[in-house]
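Checked the freezer inventory, then went back to the computational side. Two predictions to log before the end of the day. The first one is the construct we discussed on Monday; recording sequence and tokens without edits.
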Amino acid sequence: MNRTSALTIAISATALILAGCSGSAEPAAAPTTTPPSSTTTTTEAPAPRPALDLSRFGALPPVPQPTTDTVSCSYPEESPAVKEVDAPTTDNVDVYGNVEVTLSTTAGPIGITLDRTPAPCTVNSVVSLVQQGYFDGSPCHRLTTSPGLEVLQCGDPSGSGRGGPGYTFANEYPTTAYTDDPAQAQNPVVYPRGTLAMANAGPDTNGSQFFLVYADSVLPPQYTVFGTISDAGLQTLDAIAAGGVTGGSEDGAPATPVIVESATV
């Protein structure tokens, strides 16, 4: 695969994540083609998609070390809220320590560990939403199974892919690791299996939607990484992915509906 082809796949993958985020972004339509007229009824199965050569892409950068024990965060209002909640606290937000969260889903448990150091404002928001029951009863509305983008996206109680908590906040790591050379933040990197990251509709539009990476995926470092997925959680995700996407495509609602029955700290 040449560099142009690899980047084309990465850009297409980015569009999928951008499409299902908080804010007012409309979902991106999957490419469609109209088959030519034919007098035969024989249908050939599509050829398998080739694996993406991940060695052509860089790794996530090292996490910058904090210079203070706490930070201040900003959560500007973004209406409407799909489910009414209070915005998180903004002052004296811890930058050290982990938070264990269990997503109890209809497909099985998914344990996640939130890491404050790379993304303190993100973790502060997600913990606040969990404690307010925001994610309870919400569907995981999007599954992607294409080579180079294999994720399950959750966090929108409306299930539309456009819902959010009524506020937004800025990108954190890995975007913030490129302050000395912002142009590098546009080059696709590998988000490894087991990564937990925020979906968005563009820079600094994070809300409540997040995605769980169940196989190494290629994206620009514009999606905040804020934790990891447990081994048992990955087994649950593997089973969801094995069930495929509704209609047999590579992007859409999981064929087996996945509902987050509860999220607990």
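The second is the one RB wanted added to the comparison set:
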Amino acid sequence: MKKKLAFTLFMSCFLIFNACAKQQSKSEKNISDVQKNETEINPEIEKLNRVLMQLSDECKAAIPNGNPQEFLQDLQAVLQSENDFSSEDLSPFYLIDKKHTVSSDYVPKNLIPLKKNELFDIDKDNLSLRPEAYEALKKLAEAALKDGVKLTVSSTYRSYEYQKNLFDYWVSVDGLEEAERESARPGTSQHQLGLALDFAPVDDAFDKTPAGKWVYENASKYGWSLSFPQGYEHVTGYRWECWHFRYIGKPAVEFQKKWFSNIQQFMIEFLDLWKSE
């Protein structure tokens, strides 16, 4: 109830702002200061209203009350951070889930193979990441080592065909209904973007390991975001995967934590709507 109320207040700020209300209390000064001329409507605020109204009720409820100008400034920092990623590839904020897909022939450019090294372990061959994620992984792993923790990477980029075979395998093992909760259909996996990875062990035990505890505490400092949090299967489409992280960059992670209750899916859905407006 508290979060829903917060969103109502947040939305009210935008609506009042657009209506150019002339009577504002001192406590609302932060809103009135955004627009110096009350007769002039800010198109960014109007756009924000339109986008917010298209979000799911649960996503709306996750957004706290706040200053619209501050929200937009943080949003611009996130959009600007796209310049740190290759323009030859899909956006780091590309919406991919059970309803939004990528083509079967999409392969990220300049994938970097993960080889045996001193910073982190790998538990299988043929692992690779986009350069941006690879560099971020090295920084994350180096920081972990300084704290006495060595990370192990188990899965990274997966081709469409690889994902198809993997999904079919889990269907044969667990049945379609259960497989849908734990494995993505081909064309719907974050792994195909080349920006997601699974840490080992790839099971719920990771949550209790020193590596898992360290990653939860520190991954966001290096731009890594937990994709499928506990208790949000109805939102993400997948059960809790404590081992699966997606690299989106530090500005986006901070934006996600500050404005979207630290739920990646909510933020990515918002960014997708914002860009499509």
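For RB: Confidence is low (pLDDT under 50) at residues 1-9, 12-39. Residues 10 and 65 are 4 Å apart (CA to CA). Let me know if you want it refolded.
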